[in-house]
Each structure stands twice: as C-alpha cells, then as structure tokens.
Write a structure and sequence with these properties.
With 406 residues, the protein is of the alpha/beta class. The chain is 36% helix and 18% strand. Strands 5-6-4-1-7-8 form a 6-stranded parallel beta sheet, sandwiched between helices. It has a 6-stranded parallel beta sheet with strand order 12-10-9-17-18-19, with helices on both faces. Helix 12 links the parallel strand 17 (318-322) and strand 18 (353-356). It is elongated and about 70 Å long. Bound molecules: 3-phosphoglyceric acid.
Length: 406
C-alpha cells in the first residue's frame, strides 16, 4: 500500500502542520498507566519540529461523546509530552470546538505567531459534537489552522471522524512515521509473510476475529484459536458450554472456519466458576458433548492445548497474536494466556518475526516480562483488527485520496 509520507514534503520550515495523533492512553485518577501510544507518536513530532514546522496537535482521550468532560481533558497527556519532548507545550483551546468568531481569530493569530519548531495542543477533539459525525464544517474549520495535515494516529484511523478522514478533504495530507510503520508491518502479514505463518486469535468478541480468520486463512499455515472465538465454535458445533461467552451473530461462520484443517481448536479447556473458586480440566472430544453446565463456563485453554499450540508456535517463521486465551482478569485463568505469551516471546526476534496487538495481548506480554522480545507491537486496537480483516480504514484512504487529488 502506497501512502504519501510526510518525509516527501521538501520544505517544512515555518509551515503549520496539523497533526492528528492517538494518545488515547489508560488513565487512573489523572495518572497515565501506560504511555506507549504517546511515545510511539514522538518520532513524527520530533521530525516535524527538527524541520522547523509549527506543530498543532489534535487528539482524543476516551469517549466523551461530544461533551466537555473534565476527567478527559488532555492535560496529563500534554504534561507527558512536555517531559518527553523537553519542550514548553501550550494548550490553546479547551472548549467544544464550536468556536466564536473572536476565538477563531485569536487561535489563528496565536498559530501565526508561533515560532518554528513550536508545538501546541487543542484539548480533546471528541469534546466536539461534530467530530464523530464528521460534519464538513468542523473539518473545514480545523483545516483552516494548518498548511498541511499529517495523520499519525493509526489507532484511530478506522474512525471516519472529522479530525481523521474529514480534514484531508480540505488540506494536502500525509502519513506520519508511525502510521507508515504500522501499515508496513501489518501489510507484510497480508502480502508476504515468511512461512510457516502462525496466527493466534482469542479475546471475548468473536465477531471481531472471524473476519481476520477469513482474511488470513489463505495466507497462514495455521490459526490457533482460544477465548470467545473457540467458545463460539464449540457452541455452534453442539457442545454444551454453560455460561461461556459466545458471539451468537457469528456462530455459523465460527463453525465453518473452525472446521478448516488450518484452524486448530482447543483439545482441553479449563472450566470453572467466574471467581475461580472451583475449576477443573475438561477434555474436548471430537463428538459434541457437555463441556460444562450452567453456573460454570470455559475460562481458559487447558494444558494439553498449550502443548499442542507450542508445537505450532515453535515451527513458525511469522507469528501474529491478538486476544487472550481466557478470562485473564481472574486467577487461575491466566495460565493459558501466560504460557502462550512466553512461547511467543521466546520464538520472536530471531527465529520468527513476532507481531502482537490489542490491549489484553500487550498487557499479557508485559506481565510475563517479554515485550522486548517481540518484534513489533502495534498501537492499534480496533484499527489493527480492521486492517487485518482487509477493511478500508477511512483515515488511510482519505490520505491516499488527498494525494491523488492535488
Ligand atoms: C483506541 O483506543 O483503540 C483508539 O483510540 C480508538 O478509540 P475508540 O475505539 O474510542 O474510537
């Protein structure tokens, strides 16, 4: 996929660059719990400031749904940027983006007077009631603040919002360093993965993983499934699985894909109570049977499944993982996911190229202390899933189209 890079622009000196990043980080009482996404956006900001651009940043935090929500102000994030970039960074606006004429003039004047290499932020763009609906008016107003637009927030590229896919209709637009890197890494999986390519898919929402199975099936040597994806397959085949999480809407597809030779399903599972007070291993036989009754659910893959999946992981040259194998919020149901994380980490950086993405997957890799052993950690949650399902991401297509137009 060819996307115009910001590095293509010859002279950035004193140009005002409107930059959309994704710094949607987890916060607890105003404290940032993990600043990975902030750090991932630094190379583009550094590149722009070193070239003498004036950088005006747009970003979101959480889902304030068009209202100004105090807890979702960008201040803690801006503070972290200040520390990491060692720069004085001002927030130039903190309302709902329905600017009065006076305010609009004031912002334009402020930006005009900015020094080359300066960085400023608007507050959370999702405070705007017009961001999600992508009203042309908001996009056009935002576009008036810059000379060019750069999209670097891969994690938000699947949202057709004003600040993502709206602005490129009005401004010459480019991809930032991170967006390009994400496209490069993930495209390799879709086009020329080194074989054997082994994909591991889990997580609660089977409906987000089924399209990936459909898309990767011709490319992957094996797809190992766990979590809600496996549960949905079992349920569709007629196994009784008590209160286990399933996605009814994709039962038909789960059965269809689960029966493919390349798709490997659990041969044993951990069944128990939600609070983990009682649990046991249940073998999964070929002919459908009762795995557990109401009051119990499947909460993890079992030890024989870990051994089976290890055999595939140990042969892989390319590895992709998204989604926990079980209910990792509760001990002892973390065991299967932790084991997969260790196997994945051990095989990555060397014998296989290992790529992970998704909050739970990244957290599990962190938990076993092996994140550094993984080749690439995608910043995209939903965006990564949609990219790997071969869907068109509105942010990416807007940038490509903007290049064709001008
Ligand atoms: C994310 O956290 O995946 C991105 O920031 C997008 O957030 P959203 O799902 O609220 O659009």
């Amino acid at each position: 996929m060819q996307i115009p890079s910001i590095k293509r622009v010859r002279n950035l000196k004193n140009k005002t660059v409107l930059l959309r990043v994704d710094c949607n980080v987890p916060l607890l009482r105003g404290k940032i719990l993990d600043d990975t996404r902030i750090r991932a956006s630094l190379p583009t900001i550094q590149y722009l400031t070193e070239k003498g651009a004036k950088v005006v940043v747009l970003a979101h935090l959480g889902r304030p749904n068009g209202k100004v929500v105090r807890k979702l102000r960008l201040d803690p994030v801006i503070k972290r940027y200040k520390t990491l970039l060692k720069k004085d960074i001002q927030k130039i606006y903190s309302g709902n983006f329905r600017f009065s004429k006076r305010k609009l003039r004031a912002i334009h004047t402020y930006i005009q007077k900015m020094k080359a290499g300066g960085v400023v932020f608007f507050d959370n763009i999702r405070f705007s009631p017009d961001e999600k609906n992508n009203t042309g008016l908001l996009a056009e107003t935002l576009a008036s603040f810059g000379d060019i637009f750069v999209l670097d927030g891969f994690a938000v590229a699947h949202r057709a919002s004003a600040s993502v896919s709206g602005i490129p209709l009005f401004l010459k637009s480019y991809a930032g360093v991170l967006l390009q890197q994400e496209i490069r890494e993930l495209s390799t999986l879709l086009t020329k993965p080194s074989q054997p390519f082994v994909t591991i898919l889990g997580g609660a929402k089977a409906e987000t993983k089924i399209p990936i199975i459909a898309c990767l099936l011709p490319k992957a040597k094996h797809i190992l499934i766990g979590g809600g994806v496996a549960n949905t397959y079992f349920s569709a085949c007629g196994y009784k699985i008590g209160d286990s999480i399933i996605s009814k809407v994709v039962k038909k597809e789960a059965k269809l894909y689960g029966k493919k030779q390349k798709v490997i399903t659990p041969i044993d599972v951990i069944v128990g109570t939600k609070n983990g007070s009682h649990y046991r291993i249940v073998d999964v036989k070929k002919t459908p049977h009762t795995i557990c009754k109401k009051g119990e659910a499947i909460y993890d893959i079992g030890p024989q499944t870990v051994l089976l999946y290890a055999r595939y992981i140990k042969q892989a040259k390319t590895l992709l993982w998204n989604g926990a194998m079980g209910y990792i919020e509760q001990e002892p149901y973390t065991m299967g996911t932790d084991a997969i994380a260790r196997l994945f980490g051990s095989r990555s950086k060397g014998r296989a190229r290992g790529i992970i993405g998704g909050g739970e997957t990244i957290a599990s890799m962190e938990y076993v202390g092996m994140t550094d052993m993984v080749d690439y950690v995608s910043t995209g949650g939903g965006a990564m899933l949609e990219f790997l399902s071969d869907k068109t991401l509105p942010g990416i297509s807007a940038i490509i189209q903007s290049a064709h137009k001008k």
